[in-house]
Structures are given as C-alpha cells and as structure tokens.
Amino acid sequence: MNDSLLFQESQRAVGYLCSLDTIIINKVLYAIGDAVLEQKDRILSENGKDLERMDCRNPKYDRLRLTPERIDGIASSIVQVAHLPSPVGRVLKETFRPNGMKITKVSVPFGVIGIIYEARPNVSVEVFSLCFKSGNACVLKGGSDAEFSNQVLVDIIRNVLKQFSIPEACCILLPPEREATAVLLNAYGIVDLIIPRGSQSLIQYVRTHTQIPVIETGAGICHTYFDLAGNKEMGRNVIFNAKTRRVSVCNALDCLIIHEERLSDLPFLCEKLAEKQVILYADEKAYRTLSTHYPEELLQHATEESFGTEFLDYKMSIKTVLNREEALEHIARYSSKHSECILTEDPATIHEFQTRVDAACVYSNVSTAFTDGEQFGLGAEIGISTQKLHARGPMALEELTSYKWIIQGEGQIRP
C-alpha cells in the first residue's frame, strides 16, 4: 500500500473515532495499559537492541533507555488519559441571535496528526493515547535510534485496536528512514497537523519543508536569573535540580544568569554541579570568580556559541549582568520561549520578570524541571508548545482539539 492510501485510511479512521463512545475508548486504553505491562519483557528486549546501537555516553541514551519502572510509568500514563474527561464535544460558547438562530461553538478533533520525534519510545504510546482520547488518528515518525522500541509498542497498540474491531489506521508508524519524513511533510490536504518533538534543528527542518500547519514543541533554551535579592540556599538547590535532574529533556537549565553584585555567591551556587561533572562555560567575570573554586577540567571560557545553545548534556553557560534589565535583554535575545526562571525574594522584581519575559512558562523560585503536563495537573502531554498560535506550554488533551460552529434555526433567511 502506498503512503497516500495509508494516510487516507487514517482520514477514514477519524470519521469512525468521532462516533465511538467514550466508554469504548477508555476500555481500549485500559487494555493497552494492561498489554504494555504484560509484554514488559518483550519491550525491554526490543529496547535493548536499540541501546546496543548507541554509545552510552550519548545524552540521548537516557531518553532512549526503558526500564521496568519506566514501562510502568508508560502504562500508568495511559490509564491517566483514560480517567480524564473527553475534550471532544464540549460546548465552548452558546448564543441566541435576535432572529432566533442558535449558535454553538463546539470542540472537535483536528483529524490526522503527524508526530515527528527522536529517540524517546515512550512518546509512541503517550501520543497515541492522547490522540485516541481526543478523536484524532496519529501518524508516528520516530527516529531510527528507537526503531525496535517504537515498533514493538505500536504493535501492541494495533493488536488491541484489532481486538476491539477499531481501524488500525488510527495509529500508523512510518519507517525510520528519513525518506518517510518527507512523505509525511508532503501529505498536505490529508494530514491536518504536524507536531515535531525534538531538537531545534528538527523543528526548523519541519517548519521549512511542509505546507501543513505546524505546532512547534520541544526545543528548550532555558535560563535562570539569580537576582540581587536571590536566596542563595534556595538558588543552589533550584539550579542543581534544573540542570542535573535529567539533562536530556527540554526543560533542563542551559544558562545561569547572575547579578554582578552576587558573584561572590557563585562558587556556592555551582558547588553541587561539580558532583555531576557539569562543564561550565563562564563569561570572563564568572570565570575569574570560579577559577579557584570549581574543578579546572570542568571550567571553560564562554564563547558566543555558549549562549543560545540547548545543551541536552551536563553542560551549562554562565552570564554575568549588571542589573535586571541586562538579564531581561539576554533572555529576550537567546530564549527559545520555553521556560524561564528568576530567583529573587523581591516581589516587585518577580512581577516585572513575569510580565516582561516572553515564554510559555515563567517561573519564580521554582525549578524549570516542572514544565511538564503531568506536573501541571494536565496528565500526559504531546509536547511543550513554544509558539503562540492555538496552544502554548504543555499540550495535553484539550490542546488536541479545534472547534466548529453549529448553527440551528427554523427557516431563517438573510434579508
């Protein structure tokens, strides 16, 4: 079967999903969660094949690796989605016109959603569960790094769909080769939305090679500004957590900005980072301050490339600023509009920071590691949108719907 016909089958599957009762949808999700747990050994075996092909020192290795606990988490996220109310058919607005017309704004699925992602096999299941619950069919294009892991997980999904006599085209996994990406990006008129999850280069490629609407997710160049009124104990813990909790995720800290008058606290703020072998790319003032306090082999001079970089590794840049205004200017220049944080005990400074910083998530005195749908109480997410049209921040069930207008009358005509 050629790709065009395959995508058309997904289109038809959307029509089927629109008429599917929520009770059945939830039963399918519960069954997939059970199947994932029952086939844990098989999943780990296939994931092992992918891990054998990747250098364990590669920052993507942690994203790729599945463990029994992570598989439990995947199954749990599916059940969480089943527990959430359906986002489809919600009445968003209802009005009656003077001529008697009733106009209702109702949430509806997008249709066929294409997801392009890198070495994160959990995405395969989480994306499907969100799309399925919201009445969308999904076309998955995973990276070659996770070929075997993605295949086994999608096989489990499609087998359960078959058991419930639901079209398997609700979930399509494209081949891992790059040519499949081009096919998906050219499916204008069939695929309704593309969501790339991954590096800035992947997102840029998708944006420039398709006419299909794109929601940008994933790339996170995240800053934390330690202000003149920052609490150094809190700052040390927040910085350490934001940088080292999981370096391969998009909400990990990339750049610490510090007020010049707090440079004497910089060794204390960075001390724990050495435990995790974090390489610091420090500007001249920060470098001089750290030179006798931080391990020499982990301290380097910052270059222009050190800023505006999403490291996805045990690396972080440090920028010294004269004042709050310089900090805001630095963030405005280099931010990917994902997650930005300020550490300060001054309420007025917090207010100005939150007002002026242009990002999907703006934190004060909280680690950026919390940018996550589950941590926001939204359940599983399809990604973190860094744009402003349609959705911004964690994209969960509600963000996978659009809307339409329903107009009812009794023969009204326009004069």
Per-chain topology:
Layout: H1 3-18, H2 22-38, H3 40-52, H4 60-64, H5 68-83, E1 91-96, E2 102-109, E3 112-117, H6 122-133, E4 137-141, H7 147-163, E5 171-173, H8 178-185, E6 193-197, H9 200-208, E7 222-226, H10 232-244, E8 253-259, H11 266-270, E9 279-282, H12 284-290, E10 299-301, E11 315-321, H13 324-334, E12 339-343, H14 347-356, E13 361-364, E14 383-385, E15 393-395, E16 401-408
Parallel strand pairs: 3-4, 3-6, 4-5, 7-8, 7-12, 8-11, 9-10, 9-11, 12-13
Antiparallel strand pairs: 1-2, 2-16, 14-15
Helix pairs in contact: 2-5, 2-7, 3-7, 5-6, 6-7
**Series of secondary-structure elements, N-terminal to C-terminal:** HHHHHEEEHEHEHEHEHEHEHEEHEHEEEE
Question: Radius of gyration from the CA trace?
Answer: 24 Å
Largest sheet: 7 strands, parallel
Shape: globular
| Structure summary, number of beta strands | 16
Strand order of the largest sheet: 10-9-11-8-7-12-13
Stretches where pLDDT falls below 50 for ≥5 residues? none
Assembly state (oligomeric) = single chain
**Approximately how much beta-strand content do the residues carry?**
15-25%
> Distance between termini?
52 Å
Relative helix content: 25-40%
What structural category do the secondary elements indicate? Answer: alpha/beta
Number of helices: 14
Global mean pLDDT: 93
